[in-house]
């Protein structure tokens, strides 16, 4: 089949590479893609923006596309799936109504309350005085979230009441996140260890992917400002078989049934950000209507099943009943190489060297890169994700750092401790 991937980041490079490896796939097009996708066998970039729905459906018709896979949340929240449906074209990803589970945190909270899905206690506010009363009453630590999309940055985990009040004031005034922050969700702080849990859903069934864990803070030791993700690994040791079974029974299955009961059956990737309490109880931190970035890079590096067939069956009525995915038993770990200064102010246009230093059991995924006069240059905050595979997380980590050490540009910056939680974990 011929597949179109929508998006241009590291996750989309991993999706395009994985789809191109599938035996069922003859050609992959990426709109707009990046220099990494352009360099893959069977993959062609097409210069159409992910927000240009009419341009994308035209492209799908002209190129005889059998399946479109959408990477990022913004087109999904804006209704790309509905547009493709109206044109009679197969598009893998949730509808606009369903993608509100990511697009509005207050909507997701109401959904979870209605369907008994465990999450932190919370209230929604548009008025500062009401929010202040609630925050003073609950005390710190407490978490303040912009209701709408904020590229993973609209969350403040406040250690002090004053910090929570400042964050709330900035969001409600529209200063911090524009319209996305005019409504805030204030929720209890959850203690525990985070995990990313991704499934592929056909509206009735959920097939889980291998577990993963990402590092959102910029600096070593999980310190510093929050980012879109500085690295990730799979599997996540915190997701034991018992925890996995609880996540499926207490979160994923109620979500699948609840979405169908609410008239918005969920087809697409579901990425649940979870907090696993010390006793193994999972709670939802957030729902995302897409694959994680950078989780996709290590997780898909381990996938052996045909991703294109899975995505097609999820949307064409065949369904995913009884599907079990096959995995490389090894671990995978990805390090995000960033432009120094990310997530705040950083330069673009620095020449990248070392991309051709191939090393077995490693793979470089592009995110914020472009082709300049002197070759590949930096063009974003998160520039590359270097994945290593190994018999365990420690071996995967060594491999990934070995490959990363051969890549250079003027202001490269990356964490030196991706995976430390898995490596310092007490045995179960
Ligand atoms: P989110 O964008 O909702 O995933 O939040 C970003 C990050 O903030 C999460 O990955 C957590 O590290 C942290 N976070 C969000 N909500 C909570 C919570 N209720 N308790 C503790 N940490 C949280
Ligand atoms: N890795 C975090 C995200 O994709 O939202």
Question: Can you describe what's shown?
Answer:
The protein is of the alpha+beta class. The protein is built from 14 helices and 23 strands. Strands 12, 15, 18, 19, 22 and 23 form a six-stranded antiparallel β-sheet that branches. Strands 3-2-1-4-5 form a five-stranded parallel β-sheet. A hairpin with an 8-residue loop joins strand 7 and strand 8. The model has no long low-confidence stretch (mean pLDDT 94). The chain binds adenosine monophosphate and glycine. The site of adenosine monophosphate has 14 residues, from strand 7, strand 8 and strand 17. Glycine binds next to loops.
Q: What's this, in brief?
A:
With 428 residues, the chain is an alpha+beta fold.
- Total beta strands: 23
Radius of gyration: 21 Å
Classify the beta-strand content into a percent band: 25-35%
Structural class: alpha+beta
| Overall mean pLDDT | 94
Cofactors and ligands: adenosine monophosphate, glycine
How many DSSP helices?
A: 14
Q: Largest sheet, described in full?
A: 6 strands, antiparallel
Instruction: Give the CA-based shape.
Output: globular
- Helix coverage percent: 25-40%
Termini separation comes to 44 Å
Low-pLDDT stretches are none
Characteristics:
binds glycine; 428 residues; alpha+beta; binds adenosine monophosphate; 14 helices; five-stranded parallel beta sheet; globular; single chain
């Amino acid at each position: 089949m011929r597949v179109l991937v929508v998006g241009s980041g590291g996750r989309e490079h991993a999706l395009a590479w994985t789809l191109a490896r599938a035996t069922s796939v003859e050609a992959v097009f990426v709109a707009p893609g990046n220099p990494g996708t352009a360099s893959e066998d069977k993959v062609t970039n097409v210069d159409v923006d992910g927000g240009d729905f009419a341009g994308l459906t035209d492209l799908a018709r002209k190129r005889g596309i059998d399946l479109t896979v959408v990477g990022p949340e913004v087109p999904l929240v804006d209704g790309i799936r509905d547009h493709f449906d109206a044109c009679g074209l197969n598009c893998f990803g949730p509808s606009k109504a369903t993608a509100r589970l990511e697009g509005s945190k207050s909507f997701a909270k109401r959904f979870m309350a209605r369907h008994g899905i465990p999450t932190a206690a919370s209230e929604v506010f548009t008025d500062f005085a009401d929010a202040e009363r609630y925050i003073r009453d609950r005390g710190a630590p407490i978490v303040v979230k912009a209701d709408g999309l904020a590229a993973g940055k609209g969350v403040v985990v406040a250690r002090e009441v004053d910090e929570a009040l400042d964050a709330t004031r900035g969001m409600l005034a529209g200063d911090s996140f524009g319209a996305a922050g005019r409504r805030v969700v204030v929720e209890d702080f959850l203690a525990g260890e985070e995990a990313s849990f991704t499934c592929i859903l056909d509206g009735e069934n959920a097939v889980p992917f291998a577990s993963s864990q990402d590092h959102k803070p910029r600096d070593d030791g999980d310190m510093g400002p929050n980012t879109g993700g500085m690295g990730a690994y799979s599997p996540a040791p915190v997701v034991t078989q018992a925890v996995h079974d609880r996540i499926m029974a207490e979160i994923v299955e109620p979500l699948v049934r609840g979405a169908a009961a609410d008239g918005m059956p969920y087809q697409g990737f579901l990425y649940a950000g979870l907090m696993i309490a010390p006793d193994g109880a999972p709670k939802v931190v957030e729902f995302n209507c897409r694959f994680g970035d950078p989780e996709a890079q290590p997780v898909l590096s381990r996938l052996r099943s045909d991703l294109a067939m899975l995505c097609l069956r999820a949307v064409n009525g065949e369904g995913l009943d009884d599907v079990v995915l096959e995995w490389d038993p090894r671990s995978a770990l990805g390090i995000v190489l960033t432009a120094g200064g990310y997530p705040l102010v950083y330069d673009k246009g620095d020449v990248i060297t070392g991309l051709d230093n191939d090393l077995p059991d490693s793979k470089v995924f592009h995110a914020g890169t472009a082709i300049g006069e002197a070759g590949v240059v930096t063009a974003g905050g998160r520039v590359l994700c270097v994945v290593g595979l190994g018999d365990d997380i420690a071996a995967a980590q060594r491999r990934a750092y070995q490959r990363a050490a051969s890549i250079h540009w003027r202001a490269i910056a990356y964490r030196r401790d991706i995976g430390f939680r898995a490596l310092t974990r007490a045995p179960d």
